[in-house]
DNA sequence: TCTGGGGTCCTAGGACCC
DNA sequence: TCTGGGGTCCTAGGACCC
């Protein structure tokens, strides 16, 4: 058996934790740039604020119901997530942290326990230790556990826990679930399935397997197997190293000048390089993109992208930055209002992998020595920024000007930044 | 005026190899 | 005139997840 533990309206719950006055009120957390709703309290859902909906379209509703708005505060959410996960890790030998607000526990071998009671105990403990409310679904496969947790969340009478064990219980649950709400079946496949008169999760479980394999490919076939109680998705106990690393942002106000766009790209490239080193990896491809608003009139739209291949995989900020700057140089077109840009690193391998050294014919600097110096420099950079806070030491070209994003409703980083919670008297 | 960010996996098709 | 067979690797695009 697997359990899926899912934090309820996670970001909103984090904000409420430090602001109990928000309980019972409609609360939403906005995406970067204060754009869309990315977390909503039950009260906010009830008045019709949709997930991913742009906030400006709901202005009246927001005022009318005095909805509390928050800018996304990821340092806070990340830290609270870690606390929840640490608490959960005590309840099972194997745990997979699936996302910032969800994790799977392996409950095989817990057959002798009263799983329902155990789940309620987990719920209470998490609430007591961290203040975050969670829902728990239990089933024979990850997909069934997911379905169960959805039920636990939707159906208040279950008290936050749903256990799918008997055939009758499973059939009952699946028959009440629209096919597009199955984990791994999204809007597009949902629409396709409805056109073929497959409306519920139970319909999908019973659909002809070859047809599913043909039309929804191997991923869909696995989902079907899992719904029928045959586990195809094992727990991932160690997070596999990332295959790509991306840093991108929308701008608070459009950027026109190349220099300003460059500042942003340099900043994103530095962040990417840092994430890469944290992963103990190296990348061989650097992609830069910059684009106008997709909502701009057609003739004012532009989507520029450029990928450069490095002579050898690297995680050196200086090198990655040089490549990113060159890429931007190539894709930049004068006269557009850029609304978003980003840097993507790919072709990623571990630093422990033997590096094929491509020596340049014209390189007079002996390569290993050069790399050694670069590595020491990066080590010092990361150590200082860890000790004194991100951005303490950075490249001169990494200056944020102009392209700043909007974050008008930002709460303090209560658990990770002293300066946010204490006033330092001079 | 204002519309997020960061990932994964799979497939088809083309280029290329012997 | 007739023009193979068996591979690999890479990329773009489409689907999905939170």
Describe this structure in words.
There is one protein chain. The chain has 426 residues and is an alpha+beta fold. The chain has three domains: 2-163, Alpha-Beta Plaits, CATH 3.30.70; 167-227, DNA polymerase, domain 1 (Orthogonal Bundle); 245-388, Dna Ligase, domain 1 (2-Layer Sandwich). It has helices spanning 10-17, 42-46, 59-64, 74-88, 115-130, 142-154, 167-175, 187-195, 201-206, 209-227, 258-278, 317-331, 367-388, 418-421; strands spanning 2-7, 27-30, 37-40, 68-71, 95-99, 102-106, 134-139, 161-163, 245-255, 281-292, 303-314, 338-346, 349-350. The strands form three sheets. It has a five-stranded mixed β-sheet. Strands 9, 10, 11, 12 and 13 form a five-stranded antiparallel β-sheet that branches. A three-stranded mixed β-sheet has the order 3-2-4. A hairpin with a 6-residue loop joins strand 2 and strand 3 (37-40). The longest helix has 22 residues, at 367-388. The relative contact order is 0.11. It binds a DNA duplex (18 and 18 nucleotides) through residues 30-36, 38, 52-57, 59, 72, 98-102, 183-189, 216-219, 242-250, 293-295, 340, 342, 406.
Layout of secondary structure:
Layout: E1 2-7, H1 10-17, E2 27-30, E3 37-40, H2 42-46, H3 59-64, E4 68-71, H4 74-88, E5 95-99, E6 102-106, H5 115-130, E7 134-139, H6 142-154, E8 161-163, H7 167-175, H8 187-195, H9 201-206, H10 209-227, E9 245-255, H11 258-278, E10 281-292, E11 303-314, H12 317-331, E12 338-346, E13 349-350, H13 367-388, H14 418-421
Parallel strand pairs: 2-4, 7-8
Antiparallel strand pairs: 1-6, 1-7, 2-3, 5-6, 9-12, 10-11, 10-12, 10-13
Helix pairs in contact: 4-5, 11-12
The chain binds a DNA duplex (18 and 18 nucleotides) through residues 30-36, 38, 52-57, 59, 72, 98-102, 183-189, 216-219, 242-250, 293-295, 340, 342, 406.
